[in-house]
What does this fold into?
Amino acid sequence: MFRIYNHYISRTTVFLIGTEIFVLMIAFYLGTGLRFLNQMELLPFTFTSLLPVAATFTVVMVTSMAAMGMYQLDFRPDLKDTLFRLMPSMLLGFGIMTLIFYLLPDLYSGRGILGLVMLLALSGILLTRAAFLKWSRLGILESRAIVLGIGSKAREFIDQTARDPHRHGLRIIGFVPLQDEERQVPASAVLPRMDPLVSLARQHGAGEIIIAIQERRGGYLPIQDLLECKLSGIKVTDSVAFFEREQGQIRVNSLYSSWLVFGGGFDQSPLRSGIKRGFDLVASTLLLIVTLPVMLVTALCIVIEDGAPVFYRQERVGKSGKTFMVLKFRSMKNDAEKGGTPQWAIADDPRTTRVGRIIRKLRIDELPQIFNVLNGEMSIVGPRPERPYFVNQLCQEVPYYNVRHSIKPGITGWAQVRYGYGASLNDAIEKLQYDLYYVKNHSLFLDVIILIDTIEVVVLGKGGR
It folds into this structure.
């Protein structure tokens, strides 16, 4: 994993992006050359003069593919899903490039070139993905690790593999038992203990030891063995740091207070806050300008179907536990909570209007929160603001839930793009683990990644209810 501004990106993803940048640049130059194949003496371009438009095309296409989730950790590396996401990526990229040529005619490279370049790019990306699929199945790009422990925390690695069997990049070779530890992993996955531990790692070609034990006192943790592994170039990783790195979340059941106090991250400095506020103001202003026609049409549709009011205001918990009134398009009937007790939204909620189902699916109902951002109550990116009724429940039942209130809530966020809609206690715990990752590692770089991923959520309607 590479760490860029506190955010982890896998080596495979970096290598894939680098390869596809090269492929897209080649596709642009090759397409231009084929377009003027019979008129080379009339070719109005040179390699250098084409570089700005070729670079623009490459950036647009990589961003479009990222917006369709093609570089996400949970992206399934099969050609059917690749083609399913690549086609809208190409259409999005084609539309953006057409708009760029219209706004910046100096970049226009001639008729027919863009279509030919897009065809070559599509073929090149498919071939690249096919090669990566082959390499991932052969394990060429995988690193290998051994888990120290066979108890409940070690069981999480088995459960994670079962939930995401297509995930590549790291292979768990097996589990090493410790003294008086109850086994909760399959017996077939347990490795025979070999002293010293460094010899076992070398025998299996492991480059990492992951510590997954509940109790670290009483002499159970083989400190000397782990120190020898580290001095021999074998990485030693805590399970909390492992899931932070590999899954983009911080596991609540593995946290302890001293880690929060003495660990890195959780930057709430005035500089970071100032940068984030400046970004919020610029992004929310642009978003308001772009989405104003959509908001006007939405307001009209709500009035036609269910009458006024168009908006509804609801109390939510913000930074430092302070409450504010969030503004959203009304997507439910006026008597949605006539009993007076707040309720979790459910799939196919009967309280939702027909217009409401559409705007929830496309997240259009969230757009009025732009005004909350301009007022300084919210950010563009941050944890989802919850209602005080649910916050009081969750603070009692979920450890460290209040940590997410150390920053402003957001219209979109890491939990929203990684997990989707939450409507239960278990969902709240899962989303909190992503929120904790964001609170610990938030940066302008991560905010941009989340905004790009949000495009996929809107276009594919992921998680809306």
User: Anything to note?
Assistant: Residues 267 and 440 are 7 Å apart (CA to CA). The chain has 16 helices and ten strands. The mean pLDDT is 84. The longest helix spans residues 270-306.
